[in-house]
């Protein structure tokens, strides 16, 4: 008899690629052969993820295959009320996902029955639900229902068959149980088919049954699974449903609202582009501030509420939007913590590279980070199940369903026609049909948050999806469609006599950074108004700018001559700046002989000690005390360590201390739900080769050419591998194992990135990942 693995083995390469594309989790890691693939596809986790991707009608077809005794096309059509074309489409989806198999009458795949414990809301058949009853209990049931005891020796199998026959048409039994018992059955008829009662296994007969539940138990209309659970047999439920499997399962998705106004694509894209430019400016402003004054990391992880509120005040946005901006910056890899303990939230080196891109490119990175992030910014400030506060940037923000839910919502908006506004109710209905198993309170909340965040990020405007957001969803580059609607950065400002400056648009990065030092933002919008104050000028001077630097900057970028009041303000603040000096010293050198300090300062060996004179007999240093002591001793001097009170500190010469190395948190990798096509093709080849090796032996694997492994320069090796990826050919490589032993491999490269080569290893009949630094060379096969 053909098995599920045999059916998979008989599929063509295109069908296997479709299966792996629909269920990419089966590729991690690539199974050894098709038998292993079949076993992995039947695991509970893999089946559950596949079921989560089914729409309501396709899921109903799968449930019908489980409950119908003879699930042919006619039975499915009658049970679901669908057309043959609709059923063919659903069965094709189930076969593509590997949840149903067989070339004739479809059969559910292994593991599906366990993944759907109550298909169509129905319980097990009577033969299964009463299988746990002892023979004596079955005899009592059959005796009460037939009016006489069964003849012969009590046989459980024969009694189960007879009980099943009696329950095949339970109309008289239900009527005899009374209206109260019928009402209890109606509560279970459409699922779930289980209920909770006290002492469910108590012995009860027709003559002793008094309550409605006892009357149902005595007639076999309910079965006791354990002491507190009763189950409605499938035959009884189908009778109560009048033979229907489902109340209402539409084969097509609920329609989206029709257009209520004339299409206004230009207005939508301009409004969305304005929001996109705004969010880029806000994140840049936030990270510039945090680069100078970083907030601390909480001991429990995350950002303190006071720091989030301070950021919201500084950016002039609500707290929920401040949390969104912080989470987007974190998801895009622009923000991270500086250490495991007592760290700070700081911009990453990637932020400086991000600043070098144009506005459209910056927005694209932010939008992609948000779309793939598994963090829900709307949770900031709420409490978890243990009544603990959920802080922004903490692990409590993680919701694994967030990226899939965001994409599904945006795809529904993309499917709406021009001028059609899809409200939350319509979205909720549509999502309930598209992904019925993913419903619940979390999705309800993510729905509202996603709509709010998409509008704030510039993906939507007036309830419609922007055209460049459609490019983002399909994997295309959204920058060309967005760039033409964004205002070009300007390098010119209008300085007025009232000590204000107006930026008529977004400023170039360098000018924006310098102007933020010398002036305070007074208002934002289409134009930004800056105000010069003594405090802002002093801030620029404190940052190392001179009065001439500030004046030259403003003169160079001002469209009008520099007003006299501003010139006077800069000069006045600069004259008073720096008269008093405040510093911090880490260590010092003190002696009663000023001549000794003169000798130290004149010695070239003292240059690394970073010494400067505070008084005739006192030198200060920026080094730690232990480093300063070692440096002076290397100069031939004999210093001693001094306590704050002036006493000598006695130390052991062998005592050493090491500062813990700084660590940086790596941003969580967000796995993509779509597998790479080249990786899928390589996996199919590996599965076919593994199948051949399993059937005929490992000698069928491709043998590498004889001779020493190839050798080539490192740069030439990488270039040849990339060329092989582009043309799709095989290459011969030399590879060093962990013991340094070289071996030859025949490889079909799939990708070269992150210091690794990923490809199909024909000599091992498997997809393998090779470290580039261990590849000795590349040669053509």
From TrEMBL:
It holds the Pfam family WYL. Keywords: ATP-binding, Helicase, Hydrolase, Nucleotide-binding. PROSITE patterns: WYL. The keyword Nucleotide-binding applies. Transmembrane segments: none annotated. It comes from the Bacteria. Coiled coil: none annotated. This is Helicase-associated domain-containing protein. It comes from Actinomadura monticuli.
